[in-house]
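The data are set out underneath:

___
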Amino acid sequence: MRQTIEITNVSANAASLMVRTSDWQFRTDETVVFSDEIQPGSCRPWFSIERRELVVPSRAPYRFRFEVAPPADQPPVECRVSIMFEGKDATFAGEAASVPIGARVGVIVYVAVGDVAPELSFKGARVEERNGQPVAVIDVQNTGTAHGRLDGFLTGTDARGQILDVTSASTPILPGETRAIALSVAKQGDPGAPVQAVFPLVVKGKLEWGKSRATELDLRFTR
């Protein structure tokens, strides 16, 4: 498989970048940890990247090519690798001193080898405190062989009788894990107007995942 990643440099200066592959872990607190060392079971040896260093001209795009070549006898598996783009010579000029800093972007690449698919199921619903605010959360388990994401729209009714639009975070749920997925609420018909629901909150509707897969929900969240 051959693919490209398009990088655009919007600054007035050319950007010198270093490029490499990396393994990664997605923690339960939704932070990502990258590893330069090849981890057990890694598919990084299948990846070939165009080059290790490149220069992206000012205010111009660059199409970076990479290739993935799984072994011919590879059993079905979802390969997950990050391609890291890191600034080579970045410096922040403050009022008192110039401090060297480095910015990097990790582009997550998922490759389905053979017949793999997510298999999601709902394991519970509760209210969590996040950033000092109560948030409706659902626990979703993935017993499949590929990552899955939730999609779709739900309708909520809170203790004040407000009719709300409810959406789930599009966080990836990796095979073999159970992940807490937060639900966001907004004024009905106006997704750009988030509101604070007053619990208890009743949520109904359909969430979709995978290929034409969906689950009906009828949940009550109580603090």
Remarks:
- The mean pLDDT is 92.
- Residues 130 and 182 are 10 Å apart (CA to CA).
